[in-house]
Write a sequence for this structure.
């Protein structure tokens, strides 16, 4: 979706800003997406309906299940796509969308490494949380609020634009 410096003649609306991408919401997933785009020189706007950043992500601990992380390798944890998928399906009562689950698994380590490159700090120990058959969960140091603020600062530094209190 682009907003450009033209006029919508049908509705007589004027637009005075242009963006290549508009990201709706400001939780951790939105921030990872928007920051990735900004780091790659895409003109991105992130909008949030609340008066603060982070959504529910700011309130959570931000535990991050990652397959193939540096911590799993360090501890010689044997993990696989099949095992992670089985765990997700069990936790989701069999209702999971297989292709989306596989995408989450495939890119979990890349997202984790990207989040670290944005300054988010993680514990150096794996957690063995319920629902997982092997340790694969990494805890964010300082919780979700700290993680969101850290990546938000990176997003802004990379040229991303942010607007809060937006109603669509």
């Amino acid at each position: 979706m682009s907003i450009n410096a033209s006029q919508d003649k049908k509705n007589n609306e004027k637009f005075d800003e242009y963006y290549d991408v508009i990201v709706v919401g400001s939780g951790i997933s939105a921030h990872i997406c928007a920051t990735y785009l900004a780091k790659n020189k895409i003109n991105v706007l992130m909008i949030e309906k609340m008066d603060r950043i982070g959504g529910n992500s700011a309130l959570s601990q931000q535990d991050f299940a990652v397959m193939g992380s540096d911590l799993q390798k360090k501890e010689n944890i044997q993990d696989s796509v099949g095992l992670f998928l089985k765990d997700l399906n069990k936790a989701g009562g069999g209702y999971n969308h297989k292709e989306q689950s596989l995408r989450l698994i495939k890119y979990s380590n890349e997202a984790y490494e990207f989040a670290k490159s944005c300054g988010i700090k993680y514990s150096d120990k794996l957690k063995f949380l319920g629902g997982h058959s092997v340790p694969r969960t990494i805890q964010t140091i300082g919780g979700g609020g700290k993680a969101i603020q850290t990546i938000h600062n990176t997003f802004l530094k990379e040229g991303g634009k942010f607007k809060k209190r937006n109603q669509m």
Remarks:
- Residues 25 and 48 are 5 Å apart (CA to CA).
